[in-house]
């Protein structure tokens, strides 16, 4: 029996985007019904904690949360943060200097367990772009981030023990995707034994080695005594592949790229369509992990 749905946010629960409500009414209705039946929803996000309270208010239920691509777990009742797996300070400095000296970085994001998003634009970036970012964030309504700007604030964050995710940004959107992919391969080759690196649209998502949504969710299962076949996972991007490779009941959004969809067992247009599978769970009985991790690939 399915007891929990683990969902990504952007491109999944927040697809298509609704700036006032956060999600379409069908997703909200489905998840509220699922929660009302005594089951649980877990948010498995690359974001930090800024969205959690908004979602709990929207769904009128407490939610489990795995933040920064599996870097920490938040208990739904106590809000205790556990299983912290932050980035190493020396490693962050090495990464920052390497990428600053070798690659043209548009902007840096850094995340911890607070709702804050720390960011710094390259000094060469025109002021109208940085202003546009601030205005865009302000008018994002439901999706608005609590931002902390400036190079000094970013560098201070890199010196802290509780920084969990770094994002070097090459552009906002997909305009620099080819450059992003090339840099991804180069950086992965340099840091493959030290960091976990995932592709995003125009950016890289960097966490400690072995930290991803899949390992974070496995640790959650051990902590709360949930079996892996009692969970449905759903996502749309490269940072969700680790969930698809770790849990059999995997769902991917139809707008995802083919190199992401191939890892999942089921394809849906919208999150709420999971309800069709829950009406008759025999439709899930033949699910297997298509591309399971080898023992030497992952360690939790």
Give a short summary of the structure.
The chain has helices at about 10-15, 25-35, 50-60, 90-100, 125-140, 150-160, 175-190, 215-225, 240-245, 260, 275-280, and strands spanning about 5, 40-45, 65, 70-75, 80, 105-110, 115-120, 145-150, 165-170, 195-200, 205-210, 230-235, 250-255, 265-270. It is an alpha/beta fold and about 300 residues long.
Question: How does this model look, in words?
Answer:
This protein is an alpha/beta fold and 300 residues long. Helices cover 33% and strands 21% of the residues. The chain contains 11 helices and 14 strands. The strands form 2 sheets. Strands 5-4-3-2-1-12-13-14 form an 8-stranded mixed β-sheet, with helices on both faces. It has a 6-stranded mixed β-sheet with strand order 8-7-6-9-11-10, with helices on one face. Strand 3 (64-67) and strand 4 form a beta hairpin.
Descriptive tags:
11 helices, eight-stranded mixed sheet, globular, 14 strands, single chain, 300 residues, alpha/beta, six-stranded mixed sheet
């Amino acid at each position: 029996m399915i007891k929990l749905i683990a969902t990504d946010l952007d491109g999944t629960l927040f697809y298509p985007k609704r700036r006032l409500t956060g999600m379409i009414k069908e997703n909200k209705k489905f998840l509220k019904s699922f929660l009302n039946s005594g089951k649980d929803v877990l948010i498995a996000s690359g974001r930090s904690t800024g969205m959690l309270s908004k979602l709990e208010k929207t769904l009128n239920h407490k939610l489990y949360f795995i933040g920064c691509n599996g870097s920490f777990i938040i208990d739904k009742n106590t809000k205790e943060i556990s299983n912290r797996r932050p980035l190493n300070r020396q490693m962050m400095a090495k990464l920052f200097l390497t990428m600053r000296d070798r690659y043209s970085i548009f902007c840096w994001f850094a995340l911890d367990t607070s709702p804050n998003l720390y960011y710094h634009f390259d000094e060469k970036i025109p002021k109208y772009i940085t202003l546009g970012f601030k205005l865009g964030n302000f008018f994002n309504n439901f999706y608005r981030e609590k931002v902390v700007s400036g190079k000094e604030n970013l560098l201070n964050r890199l010196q802290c023990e509780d920084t969990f995710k770094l994002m070097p940004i090459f552009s906002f959107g997909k305009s620099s995707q080819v450059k992003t992919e090339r840099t991804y391969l180069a950086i992965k080759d340099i840091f493959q034994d030290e960091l976990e690196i995932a592709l995003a649209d125009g950016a890289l998502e960097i966490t400690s080695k072995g930290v991803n949504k899949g390992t974070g969710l496995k640790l959650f299962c051990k902590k709360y005594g949930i079996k892996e076949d009692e969970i449905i996972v759903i996502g749309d991007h490269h940072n969700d592949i680790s969930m698809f490779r770790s849990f059999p009941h995997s769902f991917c959004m139809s707008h995802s790229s083919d190199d992401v969809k191939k890892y999942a067992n089921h394809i849906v247009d919208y999150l709420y369509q999971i309800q069709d599978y829950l009406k008759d769970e025999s439709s899930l009985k033949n699910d297997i992990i298509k591309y399971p991790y080898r023992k030497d690939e992952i360690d939790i």
